[in-house]
């Protein structure tokens, strides 16, 4: 199969969907890889390195889409990329369709098969292709929040870890999944006073062990969050409902409870945001203020550390790329049921229920649309 790797064109996105190591692995299995010139530059991977591992370098995105059958990307396709998709294409990337009706309809109209990294789900309910970027985003969330709390960036002017004789800042993390755990680890390491909220008591028990009792774990009731907000300097939103739009856990009216210059970091922004006042921002212009509270809502946080993030992403996605390229989607799905949940759009139909519900569209179970091959 011909695998295409276009340059990411979302604002401030420096990652690339495949490393030279991935090119080598695919080539060894008989596949051709076409990489757009400059695709890896943001991650410190020049064209020559890709070519040395067997990739063919294409001059532009149009050439990549024209040649390849399987298109692997990092971020959701931008309008000009959607326009290049054809029914013969399989697109494999982060899609985040639940909060984006325009993109959803564009992909349906393209006729392409669209597989979302973030909804590939294993038998234990884990999201193996979202996890590495959640780890990165969680760490960045705390680092970014600590930086923005500095006065020149609009924050209160407080050091996250304090110093002897001066108390540390207080950090609330709403959501105890992969993002929340990683955010807490960094906040604890920086010396902050940390509170992690979740609605799963079992998960809170796990976090007590994983974080060695170095933070407070709290049940995420609306009242408990509201009562604690006035104390907080930094609040990190890390709420995830698989494939669905994120629920609001802090509403605008609650901002008046917070200190002026306190910071909200919304890691759920790719799924619509978990604060009512959130809207997507970029690394170039990352923050804005609402009612005295600074918001950081960058929609591609891991894009700030592309050398780390690209390698972590490819480590996770490559086995799935190989499976689709080697076996084709019907057989790959039959071999690995995790991919069933990954397919969001096929033959103009929505095959992921949460996306269909988010946009009031008909839901078509994958087995009704895709003839599954026997293994």
Describe the structure.
- Strands 3-2-1-4-5-6-14-15 form an eight-stranded mixed sheet, with helices on both faces. Strands 9-8-7-10-11-13-12 form a seven-stranded mixed sheet, sandwiched between helices.
- The mean pLDDT is 96.
- It has 13 helices and 15 strands.
- The chain is an alpha/beta fold and 375 residues long.
- α2 links the parallel β2 and β3.
In short:
The protein is α/β, with parallel strands linked by helices.
Count of DSSP E strands? Answer: 15
Beta-strand level of the residues, as a percent range? 15-25%
Number of helices: 13
Cα separation of the termini: 19 Å
Q: Kindly name the structural category.
A: alpha/beta
Largest sheet: 8 strands, mixed
Average pLDDT for all residues = 96
The general outline is globular
H-E string: EHEHEHEHEHEHEHEHEHEHEEEHEEHH
Percent of residues in helical segments?
A: 25-40%
The parts where pLDDT drops under 50 for at least 5 residues are none
Radius of gyration: 21 Å
Lateral arrangement of strands in the main beta sheet: 3-2-1-4-5-6-14-15
List the helices and strands and how they pair.
Blueprint: E1 2-5, H1 20-28, E2 32-36, H2 47-52, E3 56-58, H3 61-67, E4 70-72, H4 79-82, E5 90-93, H5 101-110, E6 113-116, H6 131-148, E7 170-174, H7 178-189, E8 193-198, H8 201-210, E9 216-219, H9 222-228, E10 234-237, H10 252-255, E11 263-266, E12 287-290, E13 293-296, H11 306-335, E14 343-346, E15 349-350, H12 353-358, H13 366-369
Parallel strand pairs: 1-2, 1-4, 2-3, 4-5, 5-6, 7-8, 7-10, 8-9, 10-11, 11-13
Antiparallel strand pairs: 6-14, 12-13, 14-15
